[in-house]
Amino acid sequence: MNGAWVDNTGDNLTWHDFFRYATAESFFVDQSESYWLQYWDANDLLALLDTWQRGDISQVFHQRGLEKALQGIRARVLLMPSNTDPLFKIEESKIEMSLLPRGELSVINSLWGHFDVVFISRRIAELLN
User: Known InterPro entries for this protein (predicted)?
Assistant: First the structure.
């Protein structure tokens, strides 16, 4: 997983230039070992996994299903899947967006995925303005 990222100055940065890691994989391994394992209690991680496994909005609105639950959301929603995310697929976000009355899809086309804070911050600011 090698790649580049354009920062807010327009400079093209690689994983090595920005974080001093040779690859994205080495970054994620180091971060998980130095941050998640050091600062998170095991029960916190279990609670996070439980939320991912059981977080089911189809149970909202008297258990009328996912389609009805998404159609019932009145807030503006910005779906931001990354083209490099193995968990949250763009195709699934497109389906969800089609059911959201005020949904907008903005794909993060970056090796950095949800670490691309410049792109994400810009899109959130656009949504809120």
Answer: AB_hydrolase_fold, HAT_MetX-like
